[in-house]
Amino acid sequence: MTLATGLRTQFPRYWLSAFLSDFGDGVRLAAFPLLASRLSHSPAAVAVAVAVQGLPWLLGTGAGIIVDRTDGRRLMVIVDLVRAAIITALALAIAVNAVSMAIIYVAAFATGVGSALRDSAAMTYLPRIAESADLDRANSRLVIGRIVGYELAGPAAGSWLFGVAAVMPFAGNASALGLSALLLLTLPSVFQTATRGRPDRDVLITVRSLRRDLWDGFRWLRTSSDIRDVIIASGVICFLDAAWFAVLILYVIQILHQQPGVYGLLLALGALGGLLTGAVGARIFRRLGAWRSLLLSGIAMAGAQAVLGLSADLVIAAAMIFAGSAAFALFNIATVTMIQRSVPVSMLGRVTGIYLTATRGAEAVGAIGGGVLATTAGIRAPMLAGAVPTAAVMILLSWRHRARADSR
Question: Model's pTM, two decimal places?
């Protein structure tokens, strides 16, 4: 089935389900710290409400193993329904004034686990409803949905609804997740058994079987230099990108000498850059090929970081954030498409888990590193320090895989 055919059947429902899930993640990203700030004035306590949502990504390789052992669509349905139930329980606790910081942390962590499982399953499920040649177009449209849902509409809606009533963003999030699950249920063969790499694989999860499956994933990566290098590059890029992004608000206030509200405008402008790439990213990917697309995006991100670190002009900073976000979106489209096309279906969950752990884990560590570097060497330091390594890693790997530069 081509994507053009799928647009009239499966893909729109799958896309809308993914959008509702991303939108819910964006709502919670804003609502959890707002709720925590009502109960505690401690910056550390509020920060934990954000941090615990990302902690499950450090165990993303385990999520990949589960994905390989189950039907992806069934897993997404179950995860969405469980998350909806957790958020509903939290909303009820808020409504009866029985919420506490412990309840917030547990709910944030549990929904974070669900996001890790769902995103891993979603990345492995897409090749089932889109032909390999159309994966770049499908991923471009999913990038658009994620930017709109997670970066723009979700946080904005979460903040606004919380201002109306603290219970509203969570009630809305639970409803969106329920709709997401219903949309997945409309897809045909939703409970079809997943393809397995070995027919005799035991379904019972034991420590030994988990270790064996995880080792199989790493062993496959060792024999696939292009995908292994893509994951390494993704981890490095995400680490360096998160380092400067973590101190962007301080850059806006101390270097650009702007009010905090300008920070939100710059984030929105960056999201627009990602949306632009989502609209044309598949064409760029097809015209340049995989490694040239990665090289272009890496050079663009490095240049944007360097100019940001050297400039104190608002217009230039806005242009660089727009360009850097557009390049980062192209980088994501290229890496995800390469992984989906190259990894066997029976191994895709584990490799996806390794990829997501490398990227999301690198983002968490990079944010901390960026804060430390900015404290010791100045606000510009994370931007300037990341520019050369970002360009160098992409030039090196692109040169190494130059024989595949025309790969589509």
Answer: 0.76
